[in-house]
Design a protein that fits this description.
Two copies of one chain form a homodimer. Chain A has helices spanning about 10-20, 45-60, 90-100, 170-175, 180-194; strands at about 1-5, 25, 60-70, 80, 110-120, 130-140, 155. With about 190 residues, chain A is an alpha/beta fold. Chain A has one domain (about 1-194): Maf protein. In chain A, strands 1, 2, 3, 4, 5, 6 and 7 form a seven-stranded mixed β-sheet that branches. At the A-B interface, helix 2, strand 5, strand 6 and helix 5 of A face helix 2, strand 5, strand 6 and helix 5 of B.
Chain lengths: ~190, ~190
């Protein structure tokens, strides 16, 4: 099955390609498709908005995901506002700095957090497949590592060896990451539906 | 559309009937259908297990939801273990007591929490519709109110007036609850798919 990928972030697209290899053929998002306003109140709602906009623009099946970082000491923030935590036009460097600032007084044991990814594969006939993945961990005291993207340099997964996601190879990260789990669930659902 | 409801809890079934009135005709779960083991690692996974088991047993579309309570001071627990927080055979009275005990030393402002419901409507042809709803709030210092079920007597929604869910009428609770939001999203998706 040929599926258009909603992400315009090449690192994210590469990750998704790795995770869905052999299950779908991923097509890049056409340059003429505008961004959608991600104003739903849940990750599922935002992933659906992105996937459906792309189906409408291309007439092909499309896959989109939305990821939230939920920090316990911040009452679950930034959550659905993860990509714009430091403001609507903030970069991820701004967002990471904003997060470390917000947690400056919070000791190590209380820096627990969780990444959650929801992925929607939408079809032109209106059907869709939804999958979800979580990864628990803690927020590091400072940035470490230069791989990945987003909050990877400040997130230490609980199933790992103390490295941040940005200090891991993509394969190590995929094995335990929220996005890895969500896309593996999606691949399982696709395989079962054949 | 006639849809079998996975819940065996009559209060929950009544709530879902109220929320989907005019959209689907809800059928009670047949007595001969056994419980499924809810061992998925996400709310979506558990809701899907319940909905698909019921489709397999009845040959009809089925709706199932799974709800998690995520308490920030407990690192997001009980989460996917919400129904068995005090043990595998615990009652909800046990679970509420266990929660209040765990938060005994936690002051009011740090008692933030969130309910999240994921609902899956699965069809015999393998298609499904997924919806999600959240409700942020705080955990009360003690139980208040005798309506509802589950953790309603200890959860104070942030959009309300300080009452717990168990002190509200069903209509007031539905207006802001995680389950109300999830099933309204489902009703919107069903209406849009017609």
């Amino acid at each position: 099955m040929r599926v258009v990928c909603a992400s315009a972030n090449p690192v994210k697209v590469r990750e998704i390609e790795d995770l869905l290899v052999g299950v779908v053929e991923l097509l890049p998002r056409p340059a003429h498709v505008p961004d959608v306003v991600e104003d739903a109140d849940t990750l599922l709602g935002n992933a659906r908005l992105k996937a459906r906009a792309l189906v409408a623009a291309t007439g092909l099946p499309a896959v989109a995901d939305d990821t939230g970082l939920e920090v316990d000491a911040l009452g679950g923030a930034p959550g659905v506002r993860t990509a714009r935590f430091a403001g609507d036009d903030a970069s991820y460097a701004d967002n990471r700095r904003h997060l470390l600032d917000a947690l400056r007084e919070v000791p190590g044991a209380a820096r627990t957090a969780r990444f959650r990814t929801v992925v929607v594969l939408a079809s032109p006939d209106g059907h869709e497949i939804v999958a979800e993945g979580e990864c628990r961990g803690t927020i590091a005291e400072s940035e470490r590592g230069d791989r990945g993207f987003g909050y990877d340099a400040v997130f230490v997964p609980g199933d790992g060896d103390g490295r941040t996601f940005a200090e891991m190879t993509i394969a190590d990260k995929h094995a335990m990451s929220h996005r890895g789990r969500a896309f593996r669930h999606l691949a399982d659902l696709l395989a079962a539906a054949r």
